[in-house]
Amino acid sequence: MQSLCVLLLACRGEIPPFDGALFADTGWEPKQVYAQLTTARRLGAQAGIPVRTVSNGNIRLDTLNPATRFVTMPLFVKNPDGSRGMARRQCTGDYKIRPLKKAIRDVLGYPHPQRVPRGVFVDQAIGISTDEFHRAKDSDVNYTRNVFPLLDLGMSRSDCLVYLREHGMGEVVKSSCIGCPYSGNSRLRLIRDTDPHAWADLIEFDEAIRHGSPRATAAGKPLRGQFYLHRSLRPLADVDLDATRGTPSAEEDDPDGCSPFSCRTGTPVSSPSPSTT
Questions:
Q1: Which pLDDT tens digit goes with each residue over 148-191?
Q2: How far is CA 113 from its chain centroid?
Q3: Interatomic CA distance for residues 170 and 96, integer angstroms
Q4: What are the φ and ψ backbone dihedral angles of 135, each rounded to 5 degrees?
Q5: In degrees rounded to 5, what are phi and psi of residue 85?
Q6: Cα(161)–Cα(1) distance, integer angstroms
Q7: Beta bridge pairs of residue 52
Q8: What are the residue boundaries of the structural domains of the chain, listed by start?
């Protein structure tokens, strides 16, 4: 949402224009996000700002592929002793940050493993708003310099939504994998009620990840515990998503979606993620 607002601000000349915009695609976004991406490309083209998609694969297919390592998503875990845990999150780094860095190096003309000379860098505008200013950090590489136009303008997330609506964008949805475990019941209902195909796909995925890595299972080293997409540690098909309306703890999902530079690490849990046997 915030990133789309930043792009629109640049397209309308309210902040300095960009040489380009990058969207890191996990391959498993809601259809509304891909529709917004099409709109972003059209607006960018009109303003002379090319919008490019970068990718490091399809996170859904990669997770279930027994020939590859298990994609580390922040799945909820029921440990053998019945305690609750959460798997490590590396998906943002693998499917968002890595392809973005690769694309930036390519733009600069220094693809890996070439060294980017000191003093050669891009200004990278990141859509972090005032209500998440604590997420604004310096880049961890010398070839990008992070800038935060929304902070400079004093714009909050709600300001971004108003701005987008005022300029014809309608109701904008956040960018986040269909199967993101940080999804609250409100987002899951949206998927269920607006995209039956995606909902069926999500139910199938939830069942498929119950025992973790297909590769480890095939090798006779299954992960301990059971993995779930839903925080209730129940199969998604059995969860009554409508019963929790008005219950903030169940309805709430990640307000920041899956921004590569502001994705949260999840709610602390009392037990560590399971290890291989």
A1: 999 999 999 999 999 999 999 998 988 889 999 988 898 899 99
A2: 27
A3: 26
A4: -90, -10
A5: -145, 180
A6: 7
A7: 22
A8: 2-251
Rounded to an integer, what distance in angstroms lies between the CA atom of residue 147 and that of residue 52?
19
Residues 250, 185 contacting (CB under 8 angstroms): yes
First to last CA, the chain: 41
Asked if 222 and 211 count as a contact pair (C-beta separation under 8 A), the reply is: yes
Q: Count the Cβ atoms, other than its own, within 10 Å of residue 104.
A: 21
Q: What is the rounded radius of gyration, in angstroms, for the C-alpha atoms of the chain?
A: 20
Report the C-alpha gap between 263 and 247 in whole angstroms: 23
Beta bridge partners of 78: 84, 226
* Alpha carbons 77 and 116: distance in angstroms, whole number: 41
Length of the chain: 277
Structure tokens at 23: 């969207």
Q: Exposed/middle/buried for 264, CB within 10 Å: 0-12, 13-18, 19+?
A: middle
Give the pLDDT confidence of 81-134 residue by residue, as tens digits: 999 998 888 899 999 999 999 999 999 999 999 999 999 999 999 999 999 889
- Give bridge partners of residue 276 from the DSSP assignment: 223
DSSP 94: I
Alpha helices in the chain (DSSP H): 2-11, 31-47, 59-64, 91-92, 98-108, 149-153, 157-166, 185-194, 196-208, 214-218, 248-251
CA atoms of 125 and 143, how far apart (whole Å): 13
- Contact (CB, 8 A) for 54 and 25: yes
From residue 211, alpha-carbon distances to 28, 64, 181, 207, 274 in Å are 21, 11, 16, 9, 11
| Token representation of residue 229 | 């997409």
pTM of the model: 0.86
Report the distance separating Cα 84 and Cα 76, nearest Å: 7
